[in-house]
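Notebook B, p. 112. Complex prediction, attempt 2.
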Amino acid sequence: MIKKILSLVFTIFILGNIYNTSYAIHHKNPDDIKIIPNEDYNIARPQDYLVTKEDTVLVSGKAKENSKIYISVYSLEDLLTSNKSLSVNKLLFMNEDPIITKEADVGELERYNVELELPIGRNNIIIEINNGEDNYVFNRNITITNEMIAKEYLSNKNILRDRDIIKIAKLRAEKN
Amino acid sequence: MNKGKFNTLILLSLFIISLLLINKAFLYNDQNLFTSLGDSKKDSSKDLIISKIIYPKSILVNYSEDTHTIINANKYDLWNDSKEVIKDVFTDINMNITEINKDELSEEKNKRSIEVQFPDEFPIKLITKALDISLQTIIEENIEYIDAIYIRLDEKPYVVISSEDKIIKLDNVSSNNVDNIEKTIDYIKLSKDFINFWSGEISLGTKSNVYIPYDMPNDKKNIIVENDIKITGDIEENEDIDKFAEEFFDKDLSYLRKIVDNSGAIVYMYNQNTGLLVYPNGMVEYSNTLDDVVMERNIEESLDTLIDFIMEKDKLPEEAYLSKVEEIEASNNSKGYRFTFDYNINEKTVYINNDRKEEELLNPLIVEVFNDEVKSYRRFYRDIIVSQEIDDHTEEKINPETIIEMNIERIIEEYDEDENLLATNVQQKIYDNILSSIDNISLGYYDKASKYYKTPLIEVCVIDIGENRFMFNTNSGEIVDIEKVE
C-alpha cells in the first residue's frame, strides 16, 4: 500500500514536470534520430517513470547484431541544485556531464542487457542505439528513493518539491 | 512511615529481586541442564550428519521484481534461520492448505521473500527428518515430495512447498523467527559482494526459474585437489590402499583375499558375497549381496543405515550433500533407494569428469540401500591441497549471456541433434528456442580428474539447455565439457 501511494505521488510530480530534451551525442545527422521503437530496435526495461528503492537497474531490449549501445545517465538533482533559476523545461543535457556512461555491443542474440547502479534521486537515462546508419534514441526517467525518505514524506504528507530534492541530494552527499 | 515498616519494605524488595535473579539464572541454564540429562539413546552426531547432508543447493533471495540474489545456504546462516520458520509453520495446527500453480509461484518471487532450493525432489519425510520434526498428516496427505520451500517475508508470513507435480501454499500460520531472516537479507543486500541476479525470463527469454548475474562476482581462487587415496607407485604393493581396505572391513589384511585384476584394479574379498574394488583412478566400489528380499522400502530406515555405514567404515567430504534420491529395484525384486552425493568447495558445486564414461559425470558418492542393508557403495573423494585467493582484479569473469553468445554455434550444433528444431530455418527463431529451453544457469568448479593428483579446478558457468549440460570456463568463455542431463 505504502509503495502504491508513494509511486503515485512521485509519478504525479514527475508527470507535472515533463520536459523536452534533445540529444546529440553519437549521431552524425540530427535527421537520423528515431525515437519510435520497432520490433528490431526497442527497450523492454526499465519502465519509464519508474520509482523504486532498488538502486540497480537493468536496461534491456532488442537491437540488430553489430549495433552499438551508448547509455548516459544524467542526475536531475545535479541540474536542479546547481542552477535553481533554470526551469526544467529549458535544460539542455548536452551542457551537462552525464554521471554514468556505458557502452555495449550487440551480438548474435540481438539483445542487450546493461546493469546500472544509480544514485538516489531522479535520474534521466538516455539510451542510444547506433547500427551504423540509423540512430535510435530512448529515454527513461528513473527515481531511486530509499525507505527513510519515503517514510518521511508520507508522515509529513508532503508532496515532493524541488527543495525536497535538494534534501535528497544533501543526504546523498552525506552518504558519500 | 516508621523505621520498622521501611526496613520491611527494603527487605521485601531485596527478597523479590533475589527471586527474580535466581529465576533468571535458572532460565539461562535449563537448556544445558536438560540436554545433559536428556535421552542418551539419541545419537547426536548422527543427527548432525543428517542435518548436514540434507541441505539446500542454494537460496534465492527476492527483494522485489528487479532485485534477487542467489547465495549458498551456509552463508550468513540463512538456512538455519529458515529452518526455524519452516519448523514453526510445519507444526502450526491452524494452517490452511491451498493448491497454487507455477505462474502464481513465479509471481510470488517478485515479492520480498526467500526460496530454499533443494538439489532434487526429496521425499518430504526426509526433510522433516533433517529438521527433526514429526510430520503432520495434513501436509503428508497433500504433498509427497519437496524440491523447494518458499517463505514470504511479511507481517503475515506464508510458505509455499513445491514439487514437480504439485505446489501447495500453507497460510494462516505464524512464526516468531521471520525477523531473523529479514535482518539477514537486509545485511546481505548491504554487503560489499552483493551480486544482483536478474530474471532470465525477462532479460534473455529463458524458463521462469532462471536468475542470472550481469556483473560477475570477482572472487578468483586457485584450488588444487588430489585423490584422498594415494594410488601412485606399484599398485600391488600400495600400503595406502591396503590400509583403506583393512579399515573399511575392520579386519587385518590376512583376513582378506587380495586379487589384482588385469585392468590394474585391486579386489579385496571379505567373503563370497562382500568385496571391495579399488580402480586405478582411485575410485572405490563396495558390493554386497542382499540377505533378504525387501518388499517395502522405508526412506527413514534406509537413511539411518546409510549414515551408520558411512560413520562406521568411511567418512564424508567436507561440504558433501545429498543431491539425488532414487527408488530402485534389485535383481531379487527388493525395493530400495539410491542415494547420490555431491560436494562443494568454496561454496560451489564441484563437477567431476568421468574418464571412463564420456557423457557422464562422476559423483563423489553413490550408495544403494535396501532398508537395513547396503548393497553397493561407490566413492571417489578428493582432498584440497591448495586453496588460495588470487589478487587479480584485472580480468573480469565473463557473464552467462556473453558466454552463450560466444558459443552459440556450438550450442546450436548440440541442440540441433537432440531437438531437431531447425526446420523453421530462421536464425532468430532458433536462438529464441534455445534460450527458452535454458532451465539452469549456475556457477561451479570443474575437476578434470584425468590426473589423480594435483589437479587444478576450473571455475565454470554451468548452463542446462534442453538435454545438455554445458560447462564453460568463466575466465575464457571456452567450453570445458558437455554432459547429458535428465
